[in-house]
From TrEMBL:
The keyword Aminoacyl-tRNA synthetase does not apply. It comes from Panicum hallii var. hallii. Keywords: Heme, Iron, Metal-binding, Monooxygenase, Oxidoreductase. Heme binds at C461. Its cofactor is heme. This is Cytochrome P450.
Length: 534
């Protein structure tokens, strides 16, 4: 009976319904759905189109997507719903309200893990590493990371590696560029610096990115490629990238090849370090994260010690977390200094006052530089947006409903430009807002849910201290010796790139001019590091 009814319906459509009729009906349905969506939308929020969701609005503002998003949030009162393309499985809310961020990252933390949507897209590159883990796996790695990164030995070791890299490679490179008058992409140089530094801290190896001639480094190239292809999954419909992965073609095939190269390097390094431990019985002479984790006493939940797979994934996550963020932050910092000579003068004076210690034992040295870096990241956060996925239905403090499996995107870029949080001068680069009446850095009293650059709550970045040490040492050393001159004509070209990290779209071309009087703000290898918590 049912089969006969279907056959009758098909014959009716063939005889009486034309393709043009179907097109008109579909267009009318689309228009009615669009009108209903617009009328029911939150005032000031972007249009959510039938089928396409928020995608058309994003494409219309690709050139200024971060500023457009911040303005849209301001018009909508700090929060609005979003929906991706049909079949993409992405929906939820976007917010810049500090109370909502605190609710997600702290108050109701258990309900907002990274979630399967995130983990699936980074599975090939990160495996079960801390950057891609939830639950007990995340807690175990968090404990290990906190214990090792906050130990006195690692702090001293990391300060030494930073100083060695700055004095031994970064400054000689800039001296050569200064003497020749050649221009260089500062963003690329800083990416190479932080990659070398993070590889030394994580694996105890020299990646060689800052070697003479700025060579192509296969591991660095593979890592960058694997990161870009993993991120591409976030803007590609799942049915498309999963089909390509199944067939082993296109970008998914390239991702497999890139991640294989990254993992082979990591596996080889872990294997060689394990062999060294078996042969000598100790890694006492090494202080990098891999060696410290490998030689540390087994934790209660892992009586046989950390597996090679655990160590590999942990170190790869550490490199991903630290490679791009500090370099991007420094690039925007130098860009802002170029257009604010008064701030540069005060930073340089701060460096001169520091004498020979960039990172003194009390952390009181170079507070103005510290404030300027913090202010730069307020305006240009290295990670402009992040998200968590709800396990169960919830209601945010501002009354916004969130359904299970929806995502809450907290828009760090907009949070740093919110008048309600930072006042009418929120768009101004003013490091003084982070200093107290005595000129000391007072940012430690600021709510991390208002300034979420380093995340907040239980997932507060364990590498925050390391990042500040790295940025302050590099910035102080460069500014003490050189004037960083941005090539003219870049005002329009220097824009953020649409990515999970706030790269400059076309880099930052600069020249280095030697200062008449040089200062020495970088600590010697093994020098002291920041002791206070920012």
């Amino acid at each position: 009976m049912a089969r006969e009814l279907v056959a009758v319906a098909v014959r009716f459509v063939r005889e009486y319904v034309r393709a043009s009729d179907l097109a008109v009906a579909a267009a009318a349905l689309f228009a009615c759905s669009a009108v209903r969506s617009r009328l029911s939308a939150k005032p000031g929020a972007p249009m959510l189109w039938p089928v396409f969701g928020i995608i058309p609005a994003l494409f219309a503002h690709l050139d200024d997507i971060y500023d457009w998003g911040a303005a849209a949030l301001a018009r909508a009162g700090g929060t609005f719903p979003y929906r991706g393309m049909w079949g993409g499985g992405s929906s939820g809310v976007i917010t810049s309200v500090p109370a909502n961020v605190e609710h997600v990252l702290k108050t109701n933390f258990a309900n907002y893990p990274k979630g399967p949507y995130y983990r699936e897209r980074f599975a090939e590159l990160l495996g079960g590493g801390i950057f891609n883990a939830d639950g007990d796996a995340w807690r175990a790695q968090r404990r290990a990371a906190s214990a090792e990164m906050h130990s006195a030995r690692f702090i001293e070791f990391s300060a030494g590696t930073i100083a060695h890299l700055v004095r031994g490679k970064l400054i000689p490179l800039m001296e050569a560029l200064s003497e020749s008058g050649a221009a260089v992409d500062l963003q690329d140089v800083l990416l190479r610096f932080t990659f070398d530094n993070i590889c030394a801290a994580a694996f105890g190896v020299d990646a060689g990115c800052l070697a003479e001639g700025l060579p192509d480094v296969p591991f660095a190239r593979a890592f960058e490629r694997a990161t870009e292809l993993s991120l591409a999954r976030f803007v590609t419909p799942p049915f498309l990238w999963k089909a390509k992965r199944l067939l082993g073609v296109g970008s998914e095939r390239a991702l497999v090849e890139a991640t294989r190269a990254v993992r082979e390097f990591a596996d080889r390094t872990v294997g060689e370090r394990r062999a060294e431990l078996r042969k000598t019985g100790t890694l006492a002479g090494r202080c990098d994260l891999l060696s410290r984790l490998m030689s540390s006493p087994p934790p209660p939940d892992c009586p046989e010690g950390y597996s090679d797979e655990f160590l590999r994934d942990f170190c790869i996550s550490f490199i991903l977390a630290g490679r791009d963020t500090s370099s991007v932050a420094l690039a925007w910092f130098f860009w802002l200094l170029a257009s604010h000579p008064d701030v540069e003068s005060r930073v340089l004076a701060d460096v001169v006052r520091a004498g020979g210690d960039a990172l003194d034992a009390g952390g009181s040295s170079m507070d103005y530089l510290h404030a300027a870096l913090t202010e730069s990241m307020r305006l240009y956060p290295p990670v402009p947006a992040d998200f968590k996925e709800a396990l169960e239905d919830d209601v945010l403090p501002d009354g916004t409903a969130v359904r299970a499996r929806q995502r809450v995107i907290y828009y760090t870029y907009a949070m740093g430009r919110d008048k309600a949080s930072w006042g009418p001068d929120c768009l101004e680069f003013r490091p003084e807002r982070w200093l107290d009446a005595r000129g000391a850095f007072a940012g430690g009293t600021e709510s991390p849910y208002k300034y979420a650059v380093f995340n907040a709550g239980p997932r507060l970045c364990v590498g925050k201290r390391f990042a500040y040490a790295q940025m302050k040492a590099a910035a102080a050393a460069v500014l003490a010796r050189f004037r960083v001159e941005v090539l003219p004509g870049q005002a329009e070209a220097v824009k953020p790139k649409l990515n999970t990290t706030l790269y400059m779209k076309r880099g930052l071309m600069v020249r280095f001019a030697a200062r008449e009087q040089r200062h020495e703000p970088v600590p010697a290898a093994g020098g002291r590091a920041i002791k206070r918590e920012e």
